[in-house]
Amino acid sequence: MTHEEHHAAKTLGIGKAIAVLTSGGDAQGMNAAVRAVVRVGIFTGARVFFVHEGGTVIGSARCKDFREREGRLRAAHNLVKLGITNLCVIGGDGSLTGADTFRSEWSDLLSDLQKAGKITAEEATKSNYLNIVGLVGSIDNDFCGTDMTIGTDSALHRIIEIVDAITTTAQSHQRTFVLEVMGRHCGYLALVTSLSCGADWVFIPECPPDDDWEDHLCRRLSETRTRGSRLNIIIVAEGAIDRNGKPITSESIKDLVVKRLGYDTRVTVLGHVQRGGTPSAFDRILGSRMGVEAVMALLEATPDTPACVVSLSGNQAVRLPLMECVQVTKDVTKAMAERKFDEAMKLRGRSFMNNWEVYKLLAHIRPPVSKSGSHTVAVMNVGAPAAGMNAAVRSTVRIGLIQGNRVLVVHDGFEGLAKGQIEEAGWSYVGGWTGQGGSKLGTKRTLPRKSFEQISANITKFNIQGLIIVGGFEAYTGGLELMEGRKQYDELCIPFVVIPATVSNNVPGSDFSVGADTALNTICMTCDRIKQSAAGTKRRVFIIETMGGYCGYLATMAGLAAGADAAYIFEEPFTIRDLQVNVEHLVQKMKTTVKRGLVLRNEKCNENYSTDFIFNLYSEEGKGIFDSRKNVLGHMQQGGSPTPFDRNFATKMGAKAMNWMSGKIKESYRNGRIFANTPDSGCVLGMRKRALVFQPVTELKEQTDFEHRIPKEQWWLKLRPILKILAKYEIDLDTSEHAHLEHISRKRSGEAPA
């Protein structure tokens, strides 16, 4: 891209005006979206206006005035007088529907205003069109066309915090807990919560239970207790119904359990606590990314461009026609009202259906007693610990057992495989693992090459026919060594798959790794507290060192989520001049009302510009203007309970890996034994843009920088300019790659099966 094209981004909005409003129910992450719209809008040269909720320009979907034509006339009058022809609406489907209605009437409204003498012909000509872009803010995730709405992930955080706390007391007293979560018309929160905590049962409006569900539920709870569990968790969406449309309430479930089983049962209705608290890292980043894309969509729009919604598909921002999304969302509600529940599930999309299918497998099916004719699959952790590893192992073990396989667990990685630290796992072996951090199996960075002989002997001894490796860069390089070892040892010719799990998010072949989201949230929480500590002292700059090796993912994304002034990473080389610019930027910032600064540094971003060096530089150059403090976060980034995202992601990755493994073992069965020596028999399972895909490790070699243990191309680097714009730096912005308008049917057919 030429310098002129870069510079054009900074003049894209000159002469244009954008208004941004939040409408409907509140959702965490809306503020991040508003901040992004305002700062990027100003960066492009546009004038940006706030519209307060319930105000006189458009108000909220709950504003009665706006439902009447007279109210919409007043709104149009205000927009015209301010010269606003671009509107960014952040809200639910009601808000976005109202905005689209407003747009469709725009010409008639202007005509009426001109006839009434309230606007001039010149004003009507200047404002002869209204462009609208919607961002969906809803904790229910009930809007079709996007994988996640702003606020959903934060709501899941609140729910899981409570579920984890309740689990502790439930185990102490051998209780059954019935938890009611929000979701009047959509069961997403209830479903993902159930996946994330390993609930015994879930009630969602899209898929009511069978008519004899009371018997099934009681049998399921008693079987769980028989297996040794000391608690039962039942999750209920507030809109749960039976097949006849009759509401299923948390109290009625409690009464059933007490009457039939006599269990000590308690009900917890979470209510509006799900809307509260600080937004998660995911929602902050989502709001920021969607806000930037919304501004670009508005400024690139023509009078003929249809109103669109900026949504998330995999890790990609996409633009979809607003009314297509609204119509599909209404179709879901209609299908449920008409009791066409299969149709409602399909309309929710493949991602929702996949969540449901995985949950049903893990929670509702009794594992087969007989393992005759089964395969033997081993699962292990390799590399540094990462939150979510245990959830992946649990899913792998239980899906394997459901398929009738014999599942072995290997302790301490490849070292344990060489020493024979292997045991068979049953259903209860992994009970309660979903919410536990670290690695229950134990994990080491040891690679297999030096122990091929012992590993081969144990593969034969334990009749291992497939290997699932959950881990980071060492798991990937260990996979490559296994492929090379096949030339010498036939025993190594068994299928294997790597599930990326590392806080560094540096495994080639996957945009996301299990554990990275938990680490991001740990960093964000720490940054929030550190910034808060400066609220009283003022004029203070914090330099925070993050993990990641040479990979700058954590520093960049945490910087974007926490509102950092700078984030130093290895992938984007910097000089002493860059450091000088950053110091000067903070000097100017201290003259504003925000008298604090936040700087993130990836641990291996530069050999010479260490954390101590940068701290000393900022301390010296800031003398008399601001104080500097440093904080090395260290291994706290690897600890803690996994976030809902990591639990859910790990669970689905484990299930998909085991399904692939079963098929690959059958495919590799030759002459009475397993013999797999093709490239596609050793893969990394990764999220690539919009889909989960299996990629041969040998094909990923060309995409790997082995010296620095990172992929040669990393998608998140394209988000770096957003961080700088939001920190109010004057930079060049590349607008050559952005989302194009798609249609919801096309998006749905290509969405990630996870």
From TrEMBL:
Domain Phosphofructokinase intervals: 51-297, 377-660
UniProt-annotated stretches for the region C-terminal regulatory PFK domain 2: 376-754
A Pfam family of this chain: PFK
Entry binding sites for ATP: 25, 62-63, 92-95
Cofactor section: Mg(2+)
Reactions that this protein is recorded to catalyse: beta-D-fructose 6-phosphate + ATP = beta-D-fructose 1,6-bisphosphate + ADP + H(+)
CDD domains for the chain: Eukaryotic_PFK
GO cellular component terms attached to this protein's record: cytoplasm
Binding site for beta-D-fructose 2,6-bisphosphate: 445, 502-506, 540, 547-549, 603, 629, 635-638, 709
GO MF terms held by the record: 6-phosphofructokinase activity; ATP binding; metal ion binding
Modes of activity regulation: Allosterically activated by ADP, AMP, or fructose 2,6-bisphosphate, and allosterically inhibited by ATP or citrate.
Binding-site residues for Mg(2+), renumbered to this chain: 93
Location(s), subcellular: Cytoplasm
Entry similarity comment: Belongs to the phosphofructokinase type A (PFKA) family. ATP-dependent PFK group I subfamily. Eukaryotic two domain clade 'E' sub-subfamily.
Name of the protein this chain belongs to: ATP-dependent 6-phosphofructokinase
Source organism per UniProt: Equus caballus
